[in-house]
Amino acid sequence: MSKLLDKPLKYFSIYALVILLLSVPVYYYIVDYIWLNELDEHNEITLKKIKKNLSEHPQLESADSLIQIWNNIMPGIEFGQYRRFEGQSDSTFTLFKPSTYSNPQESDRFRLLTSPVQIGNKIYKISIETNVEEADETILGIGFVTLIFFVFLVLGFLLLNRKISKIIWQPFYNTLERIRQFNIETHETIGFDKVPIEEFEELNHSLEKLISQNVESYKQQRRFVENASHELQTPIAILKAKIDQWYQNDKLLAAMGPELAELNVPLNRIIRINKNLLLLAKIENNQFADEVSLDVSASLEELLDYFTEIAHANNNILHTEIEANCMVQCNKFLFESMVSNLMTNAVKHGKKGETVDISLKSGTLTVKNYGDEALNTETIFKRFSIHSKQNTNSGLGLAIVKEICNKYNWQVYYHFGKNQHQFSVNF
Amino acid sequence: MDFNMSAQATPFYLIACFFKISTELPPYLWRMKLLIVEDEPALAQSIAAYLSDENYLCEVAETYDAAYEKLGIYQYNCVLLDLMLPGGNGMDLLQHIRQENKETGVIIISAKNSLEDKITGLNLGADDYLAKPFHLPELKARIHSIIRRKQYENNDQLIINELQIDLLSKTVKVDDTEVPLTKKEYNLLLYFIANKNRVISKSALAEHLSGDFADLLDNHDFVYAHVKNLKKKLKAAGCENYLHTVYGSGYKWNV
Q1: Structural domains in chain B, sorted by start
Q2: Residues A164, A168, A170, A176: is their CA dihedral positive or negative?
Q3: Which residue of A has its CA nearest to B251?
Q4: Helices and strands, counts by H and E, chain A
Q5: Chain A: nearest CA to B190, how far in angstroms?
Q6: Which residues contact B107 (CB under 8 A, 6 or more apart)?
Q7: Which residue intervals of B24-89 are DSSP H helices?
Q8: What distance in Å separates the CA atoms of residue B147 and residue A387, rounded to the nearest whole number?
Q9: Which H or E run contains A304?
Q10: Mean pLDDT throughout A410-425?
Q11: Domain ranges (residues) in chain A
Q12: Which residues in chain B (150-169) have CB-CB distances under 8 A to chain A?
């Protein structure tokens, strides 16, 4: 994955490279054109000056010998004869000559101006030549400079990019960070800072709207669960009372006693589910704010009193190893709910005749019971995920354990090994 | 709404009782007057039907105003108070009761089961708080315990024929022989006595024995063990067998 700003950087760099490469020949032609023009002008001026000087020295009747000497010692200007069919007029052209001084293989480029000039009564052909930079050298120079500029350009892009991403994209990163830290469960509304950039402001605005809608529906859903559970309590209470009332009817009891007793089983299940849903809703709504420094060891012993009986009735042997004086800051009821859920599961699902181990050692509560196969660790703490065939579960026990642990930042682990389910809570 | 049968029976019964009381019945068997403040008629009816007997007289008020009116006219031994009522809040009624009368026992029966309500209620002078849904025997046991506490502070003996229960020291005697009961068995005994002549389901017993976390398990076998032990100990002490098993359903304390 590349960063957003690196994408345009790549294309900018390629575009810059193309343009700069195209500019090399253009520069060359322009430089060469200006260069030649300037040399032509220079040659012209030299010619005019020579012509003017010559006309001021009319005594040069026959200058052959002088011209001979001149040609021998003066580079750049040469007097010669026109050949027979040569047109006697001014002409400008470029000429390559083998280099005189450097490597003989190389040739130099010259710009020439030839013009007929009359000395005495003889017409001479005056050639004024000026050395011009060769094309390859020019191109090489321009190319080299272009390359340097290109490097500067890319470096500049990189720096600007970094700067832009720091300055211009900062609001975007702020927004991103806010969203990342946003937790719908904490009831906070998300507030973005005001940004002077229209797009980001629009983004923030839309996000705020989206999130506030979500928060609202989340709250509604939670309130719904709580309200629904509350509303259910009364009809359930009526059912429960009615069954108790029917127990007092001798005829009914004689005819349907066991059936009546069976009614209590699903009813208790409804009550349990409802109670647990309510408990979850209350934990989520932070209704267990009062915390004490709880003597977990003592609290556990108290609960074990009850669970020893249950385990006994269930043909389980309860093994306990409770470290004394373990203090934890929490709500007593929630702690008891958590432990009860863990212990109930262990006793309920533990293999008959096997041990159920409960230990509290160095701030870790561990509940172990024998079982056949590992539970699905992905869904084990989810609501209403089915772990066993027993249909008396509320399906919420472990969800409650998880929720309580989350509330107090306790770590809860599940581990299966040596045919034992093991739940640990680290305070 | 009065619970009609009982209302009609009141004066009649009181006169009849007057002589009985003075001659043979101990004072805790006076007929108690209960007010059930509950807006759900079906529930109120069930509670009234379960509680009403020769000892208890139940009346029902379904609204705040009806309850307020009744409280102005009659003296009640115990008021069962729902908090969410048409026309007002049960808490206000509680305050009203406490201003008028210190003796009336008040049990809040609420569907909300919130800790704040419980604390507020108890601070305002409620004697107990029972969250819906509850088992009727549980309610009756609580009423029994409150009335005993309130009305008979000096009488800490509960006597049923040969059975003597000292409520202060929590000891049980059968014809002066002490019966060594565990705390659970003692509680169970009081529970049965409070619900005498009623069939109590195992589910209700389990809930009573294990409090908040009973409903986590469906196995009520441990109830059986306790009941069996209680029965055995009472029998060994020479107590008549009042505790009967109702096949497939539960138990009944017959007196």
Answers
A1: 4-151 (3.40.50.2300), 157-253 (1.10.10.10)
A2: negative
A3: A247
A4: 9, 11
A5: 18
A6: B78, B79, B80, B81, B126, B127, B128, B129, B130, B139, B142, B143, B146
A7: 41-51, 64-73
A8: 47
A9: helix A296-313
A10: 86
A11: 6-162, 200-283, 289-426
A12: none
Which tokens sit at B76?
């009640």
User: For residue A278, which residues of chain B lie inside 8 Å, CB to CB?
Assistant: 113
In the predicted structure, residue A144 carries a pLDDT above the cut 70: yes
Phi, psi of A66 (to 5 degrees): -60, -40
Query: Residue B209 — pLDDT band, cuts 50, 70, 90?
Result: confident
Cβ–Cβ < 8 Å for B113, B119? no
| CA dihedral of A345, B207, B81, A337, whole degrees rounded to 10 | -20
- Do strands B56-61 and B32-37 pair parallel, antiparallel, or not at all (unpaired)? parallel
Of B135, B215, B217, the CB nearest to A244: B135
User: In this model, does residue B212 exceed pLDDT 80?
Assistant: no
Please name which of B146, B144, B183 lies closest in space to residue B160, comparing C-alpha atoms.
Answer: B144
* Residue A286 or residue A77, greater confidence: A77
Architecture per CATH, A6-162 = 2-Layer Sandwich (3.30)
Q: What is the pLDDT of residue B27?
A: 47
The rounded percent of chain A whose pLDDT value lies above 90 is 7
Cα angle value B65/B67/B71 (rounded, 5°): 120
Q: What is the mean pLDDT of chain A?
A: 83
pLDDT at A18 exceeding the cut of 90 = yes
CA distances (Å), A153 to each of A140, A148, A159, A383, in order?
19, 9, 10, 59
> A289-426, superfamily in CATH?
Histidine kinase-like ATPase, C-terminal domain (3.30.565.10)
Average pLDDT over residues A207-233: 86
A334 φ, ψ (degrees, to nearest 5): -65, -40
What is the complex's ipTM, to 2 decimals? 0.81
pLDDT at A104: 62
User: Tens digit of pLDDT for each residue in B19-69?
Assistant: 444 434 444 456 788 999 999 999 999 999 998 887 788 999 999 999 999
CA-nearest residue of chain B to A269?
B215
> In the numeric block, which tokens belong to residue A255?
């005819």
Domain A200-283 falls under CATH 3.30.70: no
Q: What's the pLDDT score for residue B14?
A: 53
Give CA–CA dist A403/A409, Å, rounded.
10
Distance CA A330, CA A405 (A): 10
Instruction: Give mean pLDDT, residues A150-160.
Output: 91
3-state DSSP helix/strand/coil percent for chain B, to nearest 5?
Answer: 50, 20, 30
Confidence of residue B15 (pLDDT cuts 50, 70, 90): low
CB B219 within 8 A of CB B155: no
User: Which residues in A lie closer than 8 A to residue B111 (C-beta atoms)?
Assistant: 230, 233-234, 237
Q: pLDDT-based confidence at A272, cuts 50/70/90? A: confident
**CB distance from B222 to chain A under 8 Å?**
yes
Number of H helices, E strands in chain B: 9, 14
- The Cα A94–Cα A157 span in angstroms is 43
Cis check for the bond before A58: say yes or no (omega within 30 of 0): no
